[in-house]
Amino acid sequence: MKKIALPIRFGLVTSAVLIAYFLILALFHKHTNPVFSFFNAIITAFGIYEVIRLSKLENPGAFSYGEGFRIGLVTGFIATVVFTIFFLFYATEFSPGFLPELLKEMHGGLGADVGLVTFVVAIMGLATTVVSTLTVMQLFKNSKNIA
Q1: Residue range 85-133, pLDDT digits in tens
Q2: Do 121 and 79 contact (CB within 8 A), yes or no?
């Protein structure tokens, strides 16, 4: 249980930061502009970086590339699932006018509904998780270089 507790904790914290960022954007009516969602990748990457860094500090001898990769994926997966659930709740219950505004801002709604947009949010979060984990693990992998 101890091995999974750290990624769960960091996943929940990362999702809380993502939700707070979204709500701050909503406060200034900028949450319908898709450009601001690029900062979500930075938030997710930072959460993954911190959990891998802390995990390597706790067990430097037992830390492996596979272990770090697993920790990063679990953290990002939890953050993505929690944020996606929040996004679905926000778009359907809290602000029903949000989705039409978002689709209008994207110039070409394509007849998308809340299910498709929520699916895209989830896929983008999972893709960000995989790319961020691969990138961060380049910093923390054990080098086999002799020189």
Answers
A1: 998 898 888 877 777 777 777 666 566 777 788 888 899 999 999 999 9
A2: no
Cα(137)–Cα(135) distance, integer angstroms: 5
Amino acid at 32: T
Q: What is the DSSP string of the chain?
A: -HHHHHHHHHHHHHHHHHHHHHHHHHHTT-TT-GGGGHHHHHHHHHHHHHHHHHHHHH-TTT--HHHHHHHHHHHHHHHHHHHHHHHHHIIIII-TTHHHHHHHHTT--TT--HHHHHHHHHHHHHHHHHHHHHHHHHHHSPP----
Higher confidence at residue 145 or residue 117?
A: 117
